Amino acid sequence: MELVKNIFFNTDKLIEKSKVKISYTGKLFQNNSEEVYIHYGFGLNWDNVNEIKMEKTELGFQAEIELIGSETFNFCFRNSNNEWDNNNCQNYIFPIEKLQVALILTDDTSLDKPRKLRKSYIWSKKLRLAVYKIITYLPKIISGNYKRKISE
Known about the structure:
Elements: E1 2-4, E2 7-9, E3 19-24, H1 27-30, E4 36-42, E5 47-53, E6 55-57, E7 60-66, E8 72-79, E9 84-85, E10 92-95, H2 119-143
Antiparallel strand pairs: 1-2, 2-3, 3-7, 4-5, 4-8, 6-7, 8-9, 8-10
């Protein structure tokens, strides 16, 4: 996915708490820089600022970054000569989407295993059935109105 000219991500959306691979083919790559670093942070205040060296490939410089829970992902690039590509002093800023918690399954909710019922639940069902039978059939037996069905 190309969000800005010369910057590509390996995903359609930037989602919090996931890894994203960034490919950079901007002016520092075009000027044949040997080393390029990505300088990045999160949110309006550039929280958790970090800088890592990007790997040089035939397709540009690449790096993989873990996105944290924040509103935006902010970054710029520099080479070993301290030349910067910071989007004309505006930095590169992209929104980070929130993780959809409702779609995550944990190991406890595995659909492969049948659920075991608690013994107390099973006994309460048996007790309810016994009470129902007593309430339903005991008055009929006492009054003599109970007739057994005879199958032919």
